[in-house]
Amino acid sequence: MTDTSTATPKKSIFDLYPEELESLLIDIGEKKFRSAQVLQWIFQQKIYDPSSMSNVSKKTRAFLEDSFEHKFPEIVSSLSADDGATKLLLKTEKGHNVEAVILRYKNRVSLCVSSQVGCKLACSFCQTGKLGFFRNLTASEIMSQFAIASSIVKKEGKKISHVVFMGMGEPLDNYSNVIKSVNLMIHEKAYALSPKNVTISTSGVVPKIETLSKDTKAALAISLHAARDDLRTELMPINRKYNLDKLKTALLNWQSDTGKKLTIEYILIKDKNCSKTDAKALIKFLHGFRAKINLIPFNSHPGMDYDKPDEKTIREFQKYLSDRSYPAPVRYSKGMEVSGACGQLAAK
Ligand code: SAH
Ligand code: SF4
After folding, report:
1. Residue 85 CA from chain centroid, whole number
2. Are 121 and 169 contacting, i.e. CB atoms less than 8 angstroms apart?
3. What is the pTM of this model?
4. Residues 111-169 pLDDT 10s
5. CA-closest candidate to residue 294, choices 198, 232, 236, 225
6. Closest ligand 1 atom to Cα of 306
7. pLDDT tens digit string along 322-337?
8. How far apart are CA 97 and CA 177, in angstroms?
């Protein structure tokens, strides 16, 4: 009998880029067009079980079966809200739960994925931050969220067109796994999403922002939330290490290297960051950027001292920006009903 406890764990199909898988198949004697068929099953048909790949040779199916794991995390729960959001709770192999949220809009389907179990960065307003840090997700665990959500929306005749790394965790604190997964999402021979539709959201891990443009074509969003150092440090402790000056330099470099528009996320928190002084500081910070600014009224949750400002404050803040040629739409998070909105992800 084989002792499976000492067997090397199988790889995931998502540990490889399409070219790497193709060359493995060519190495075992498969023809090029056959390896292309395998890629088609995986990335277009989203069929991961080799036994279902009907036009693939027996030998290749057996090779895939022996070499790769094609099981996905179990769906522990799936909660849908009336606004088109579905929150998925997935159990990873190591027993941790992670969350992903499907957001259905009129003409697109967006998926919000997690990159870590918990987060080290302890932003004062964030549920995930309150959890502390457990571990990084592997590229395969990130891709599994995409694969599971894709098969759910496929049954509705829909396709995921956008991915945002705005679930649990700080993506740039799990750099190599996040880079691998965003690059699989946008790779032409893999899921082929448009690079501008795959967005990494960061709280400002400056050294990683500096290397991002050479490692991926994906889009970038910065969670700014304050444009004064004292206040930003209070809300986001990472600002102590990488202050607004350093952050701005790294973001401007990313922008000039990529030629892309930056997305700036600014949560509006009552009596904290939405005064005229704050709006003024934000305008000063924005100088030099080609950016899209999203204003997000704070999502309150139990046990949190913060609240969202009243409508008048929100509109005044927005008007201050638009009067100075910075249009800033107010975005209300979807999925509040199912605790699937930004900052509410805290799978235990
Ligand atoms: N760590 C990354 C990505 C995950 S957080 C980051 O911080 O960007 C995703 C987004 O949700 C961030 O913009 C974060 O600031 C925001 N967020 C966290 N708590 C929130 C809350 N209570 N209300 C609204 N947005 C929140
Ligand atoms: Fe981490 Fe982002 Fe939450 Fe800050 S806002 S604690 S970086 S997940």
Report:
1. 16
2. no
3. 0.94
4. 999 999 999 999 999 988 888 999 999 999 999 999 999 999 999 999 999 999 999 99
5. 225
6. 22
7. 999 999 999 987 666 6
8. 18
